[in-house]
Design a protein that fits this description.
CATH class of the largest domain: Alpha Beta
Structural class: alpha+beta
Radius of gyration: 24 Å
CATH superfamily of the largest domain: SMI1/KNR4-like
Largest sheet: 5 strands, antiparallel
Mean pLDDT: 91
Number of strands: 12
Helix content: 25-40%
Length: 324
């Protein structure tokens, strides 16, 4: 954590020297006892070591003072620990595991911003910082909390921050961010990787472990049938091996098209009935176990889609999917 401490000290000194009127916005740090009390709301998970270091030195930045806005970071808010915990509880209480994750901690932002991963054990670093937004998936943003503040420091050193116009976003920020974060950003400063908020396919192992997502084994080759063979012998219960492409539906139930060289069929996937539901990602191949669909489930989905699209006739529900 030495790099983070050094960067924060330099940033603090620069603001005091060049912008003394803003120095009071960088809040003093919290004691270990205060941090421990606030972190109780995150149990059984732990604040990463770099956030512990951060909050010991500075407990956030006052973006608004006497009605005037001034941000510290290039594209997010530096919340106090209490504010970040409240945001965490708000996201989790509103969305639960359907659209959030118990390890996603929105340390820098509210409706959008940057999050870090809480840890399963104490004294572990957070790893990459990820951008989040209410309407989009996650994206890699900074290589670490230290890299976020190193990017911020260079922006302040070069006079790019504080922004003269809060609505503007100078392109130089992307250049600086790319240089400090080669694992997270392309040379153009754009995210190298997007991570779904709903599909667990590309999630790190710890994220999957926290939700109890156990990888399933694909079917043995001798058990797999083609779609044409399945349709000729539906009671067999043998799995098909097919590409699943998303058609659409509701948040926890949707219709996908399964296709192979012999044909295609529409199948229903639901959070309650489909084992490994969170592994779905459109355009990928899966082993799929099918059963006769419950007409009531299709009727409920058709009702949810009314006015948006007409639901196709669906005869099967995927009771298990295993990505290949």
């Amino acid at each position: 954590m030495a790099d983070l401490r050094e960067t924060l000290d330099e940033l603090d000194g620069l603001i005091r020297d060049r912008h003394p009127e803003l120095a009071g916005r960088l809040r003093p740090g919290r004691s270990d006892e205060d941090i421990a009390v606030l972190a109780e709301d995150l149990r059984p998970y732990h604040l990463p070591a770099d956030l512990m270091t951060l909050y010991r030195l500075h407990d956030g930045w006052d973006s608004y003072s006497d009605g005037d806005y001034c941000g510290l970071l290039p594209d997010a808010a530096f919340n106090s620990l209490a504010e970040a915990v409240a945001q965490y509880r708000g996201w989790w209480d509103a969305l639960g595991a359907d659209g959030w994750h118990p390890l996603w901690f929105p340390a820098f932002g509210d409706q959008s911003g940057e999050l870090v991963a809480l840890q399963l054990e104490p004294d572990r670093p957070a790893g990459q910082v990820l951008s989040f937004h209410t309407e989009t998936d996650l994206a890699t943003s900074y290589d670490s909390v230290a890299a976020l503040f190193a990017t911020t420091l260079e922006c302040w050193q070069n006079g790019i921050l504080p922004l003269a116009d809060p609505a503007s976003y100078p392109p130089e920020i992307l250049t600086i961010a790319a240089r400090h974060n080669p694992r997270s950003r392309t040379p153009d400063g754009l995210p190298r990787l997007e991570l779904s908020r709903t599909s667990a396919r590309d999630w790190p192992d710890e994220w999957r472990e926290a939700l109890g997502l156990v990888p399933l084994e694909p079917a043995a080759d001798e058990l797999v049938v083609t779609i044409a063979e399945f349709l000729r012998d539906r009671p067999s219960g043998r799995p098909i091996r097919a590409e699943l492409s998303g058609w659409g539906g509701a948040f926890d139930a949707f219709v996908a098209t399964a296709s192979d060289a012999t044909g295609s069929l529409d199948v229903l996937l639901t959070r309650d009935e489909t084992e490994n539901f969170r592994e779905f990602a459109g355009g990928l191949r899966f082993d799929v176990w099918l059963a006769a669909v419950d007409p009531a489930a299709v009727a409920n989905l058709a009702t949810a889609m009314r006015g948006l699209a007409e639901l196709p006739a669906v005869a099967f529900v995927a009771v298990r999917i295993v990505p290949l």
